[in-house]
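Backbone shapes recur. Consider a single case.
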Amino acid sequence: MTATSWLLAAAGAVGLTVLFTHHRATFTLATVLLLYLLLAVAVARAGGPLPAAAAGVAGFGLANWYFVTPQRQLAVRDGRDLLSLAVYLVAVATVVALVEEVRRLRQTLARSQAELVASRSQADDSS
């Protein structure tokens, strides 16, 4: 987890929101949520689960604030929008967990490979 990943999360959320609000007619709520999800995936890959979760929560709040009726309120009038926001949060949580699991598996694999090389070296030395 680096300062760069936190910066990516913050700048990405702000940048996407500016883009979305300036081209509101181009983006549906589904598109907005998918692009915020893509940001969370990128942050998870770059910096781990905490900055990615922060990017996901920021995406949720910004999408709700700017793109869900009533706008500029943390309220949801349409049940379909509420479902979209809920599915988005579940997707973010799932992706963050999966990226973290892959990171742990890579570390385990690297340790196992190092142990295998060391044990082969010891076996070669003893023969």
